[in-house]
Amino acid sequence: MNVSDLGEFGLIERLAKAVGAERPESLIVGIGDDAAAWRVDGAVVLATTDTLVEGVHFLLDLTPWADLGWKALAVNVSDIAAMGGEPQYALVTLGLPPQTPVQGVDALYEGLQECAREYGVAIAGGDVVRAPQVVISVALTGQTDVDADGSPRLMRRDAARAGYAIAVTGTLGRSVAGLRRLKEGAPAEDRLARAHLRPWPPLALARRAVQLGVPCAIDVSDGLLQDLGHVCEMSELGAVVRAATVPLSDELRDAYPDDALALACAGGEDYELLLIAPRETLAALGSEVSVIGEMVESAQRQPRVVDESENEVRLPAAGWDHLRT
């Protein structure tokens, strides 16, 4: 059996079982959520890591170095936001071919620093190694608030309940549409291309959500349906998404009118947030979120997209899987 037979998420589940028996008492959240969480002297520390590989996550001829630096940190900020935390310190590992231009690395770090300033992150160290293609891996730590009784304020994938509403920040599908636009020859300044090259995780909104008591969240990195499917699996529930309520930008509708819904549901790399909570809790976030469905009891533990007549909408793909895609 090869890892492609398991897929990315099957492999993660297998690895989680391999290390699960040695879980210490201080560990609050381990493998399977957007970030790990553990206690240190009364505080709760968060940690996450993401890696961008040339030819898999980006193409250098389509990606300015500064944008690559921004995105490498932003995707990690998105994970901390999805837990309701505040990002703090980053470690950056670079894998570089010897012929990599120094000016490119300088621009990469300009983008990293720009994102770090935007989200209050300090780049504290890292590593540099030789590699056959450009690889940038960021590990990011953060903290979350603790209530008076010591309970951490966290949004978790396993905290959804039947009847909770599902909301999403921003609009979906712009990133994958931006990648398509870049491949079609659009400049990096194209509005959809900017959404792909420079995601802006809604950290401030995530912090408000956790303060309001939103219990469940996940960032949209692999696609709306794929990521909502993780919540379904962890919370042992199904989900219904109403196609007419999925937020789509005018740019997406204008550029790809026939594919807009499919791109929004399966495209990935939007780095918006899915927030799952009682409807009245989500209402306190106002117009910054769109309610798109609800969690339901279901043995299938997966999301369904339905039209206004409650008929299921069939889509060509569910989302991104590194080992199967």
Notable features of this structure?
single chain; 325 residues; alpha+beta; 60s Ribosomal Protein L30, Chain: A; Phosphoribosyl-aminoimidazole Synthetase, Chain A, domain 2; 6-stranded mixed β-sheet; 10 helices; 12 strands; 34% helix
What does this 3D model show about the protein?
The strands form two sheets. A six-stranded mixed beta sheet has the order 1-2-3-6-4-5, with helices on one face. Strands 8-10-7-11-9-12 form a six-stranded mixed beta sheet. It is built from ten helices and twelve strands. With 325 residues, the chain is of the alpha+beta class. Helix 2 runs parallel beside helix 3 (102-119), helix 2 (65-82) packs parallel to helix 6 and helix 4 (174-183) crosses helix 5 (191-197). Strand 2 and strand 3 form a beta hairpin. It has helices at 3-20, 65-82, 102-119, 174-183, 191-197, 203-212, 224-235, 250-255, 260-266, 279-283; strands spanning 27-29, 36-40, 43-53, 86-96, 122-130, 135-144, 165-169, 216-219, 238-242, 273-277, 289-296, 303-306. The radius of gyration is 19 Å and the shape is globular. The two termini are 17 Å apart.
Distance between the termini: 17 Å
Q: Any idea of the CATH class of the largest domain? A: Alpha Beta
Could you list the spans in which at least 5 consecutive residues all have pLDDT below 50? Answer: none
Secondary structure category: alpha+beta
